Amino acid sequence: MALLVQKYGGTSVGTIERIKHVAQKVHSVKQTGKDVVVVVSAMAGETNRLGALAQEIAEFPDERERDVLLASGEQVSVALLSLALKELGQPARSFLGHQVRIETDSAYGKARIRNIDSTKINQSLKNGEVVVVAGFQGVDEDENITTLGRGGSDTSAVALAAFLNAEACEIYTDVEGVFTTDPAICSDAKKLARIAYDEMIELASTGAKVLEIRSVEFAKKFSVPVHVRSSFVDVEGTWLVKEDESMNDVLVSGVACDKNEVKITLVRVPDRPGLAAQIFGPIADAHIVVDMIIQNASEDGTTDLTFTVPKADHKKAVAIMEKTHAAVNAQGIKVDPDIAKISVVGVGMRTHAGVAAKMFEVLAREGINIEMISTSEIKISVVIGAKYSELAVRALHEAFVGKQENP
Ligand code: ASP
Ligand code: MG
Asked: Which candidate, 166, 226, 260, 342, has a CA 20 to 30 Å from the CA of 210?
């Protein structure tokens, strides 16, 4: 029987009313004869609330216990949704990550899914039940509860779709799909009918917070068709698909803005072999993901080394740097949280030149100073002062997307 995986985010299950609404939707799909596996997030705001409780006890809470705590948010929502389904006469069964056995590594707070055992889910589907799985959580080989990182329910859903061979994974959220930029910033933003996995990966990693990035990597790896759509309005959303020729005609599919990074500069680091390794080794050991890095050629034997890390990790990163900077003889540390990373993304860049030049020109026209630049095959990112972020997004959207008929 055809199997559909559906995922409902925190706002979609934010109140009892909304949970009942989700139950109706799931029930009606089930009645068309499909098997349905539903993945849910914690009720809106719940994960933050739980995180804050831990923070009241410790600045750096023990990560194992923090995961036990955070995972409880999804335990509430799977139970409530299953109850709502049963209330409609629809047999349903809730599963926590360890009950399915969604096996992950042991990186608390950002665990990676290694394997999903489909036995119990298949059994439950065979019994005519809707399977309701807690997103965001798994279990490591020593039976410790793990969580996958913020927004991780998307990854749970796509991974389940991959391991269960579902026909598609529908991600129900509070927006209608993936837009060319944030509609809250730019009223010209348009909904994309389709987007290539690689474009979505770049957009997701650059601040378009529609989908969690690992979920898109998973979708690409296993070619899972993903449909991002609204849980409130019944219209087609955006399909994540494999790249094809026709996509190359569009230079830029989206403009993203990420205010979730902090810039850290090690001032006047001696310029000798091995220093970058000495600096970034401990950061990597702490599982902190460094995004952009710049280092200039040195003139007097020292150089400033600047990099960005996620806001959530920046205190940890600065604490590490405070140890490292003495060891490597740097003159000091500067931390700048008031930055934004603006990116333009499009697979068309593979075959067309001049996008970077045009981007810099647009920013120059607006008098915006560029602090860092990085590029990939299909993306150009710049770091600018946070206060210019909206201006930059609007100007770039108008220059690259606004004039296209069908983005
Ligand atoms: N509840 C988790 C969070 O808020 C996971 C998710 O929503 O996907 O990050
Ligand atoms: Mg979420």
From this structure: 166
CA of 176 to the centre of ligand 2 (A): 15
User: Are 251 and 400 spatial neighbours (Cβ–Cβ below 8 Å)?
Assistant: yes
Closest ligand 1 atom to Cα of 48: 4
| pLDDT over 90 percentage in the chain | 84
What is the reported pLDDT for 279? Answer: 93
Report pLDDT digits (tens) over 101-142. Answer: 999 999 999 999 999 999 999 999 999 999 999 999 999 999
Q: Is 250 helix (H, G, I), strand (E, B) or coil?
A: coil
Distance 163 CA to ligand 1 centre (A): 21
| Cα four-point dihedral sign 128, 130, 132, 133 | positive
Q: Are 248 and 351 in contact (CB under 8 A)?
A: yes
Question: What atom in ligand 1 is closest to the CA of residue 153?
Answer: 8
What pLDDT is stored for residue 1 in this prediction? 78
In this structure, are strands 261-270 and 302-310 parallel, antiparallel, or unpaired? Answer: antiparallel
Q: Please tell me the distance between residue 45's alpha carbon and the centre of ligand 2 in angstroms.
A: 9
Q: Note the ligand closest to the C-alpha atom of 158.
A: 1
- The pLDDT tens digits for 74-84 are 999 999 999 99
C-alpha to C-alpha distance for 307 and 372, rounded to whole angstroms: 9
Closest ligand relative to 173 C-alpha: 2
> Smallest Cα–Cα separation from 407: which of 255, 250, 256?
250
- Alpha carbons 366 and 394: distance in angstroms, whole number: 11
What's the CA-to-centroid distance between 154 and ligand 2, angstroms? 8
Backbone angles phi, psi at 209, to 5 degrees: -80, 40
In angstroms, what is the span from residue 135 Cα to ligand 2's centroid? 10
What is the position in ligand 1's atom list of the atom closest to the CA of 42? Answer: 1
CA distances to 3, 5, 8, 170, 304 from 120, in Å: 15, 16, 21, 22, 55
Q: List CB contacts of 364: < 8 A, sequence separation 6 or more.
A: none
Q: Is the CB of 97 under 6 A from ligand 1?
A: no
Which DSSP string corresponds to 142-166?
Answer: TS-EEE--TTTHHHHHHHHHHHTT-
Kindly report the protein residue whose alpha carbon is nearest to atom 8 of ligand 1.
151
Rg (CA), the chain: 22
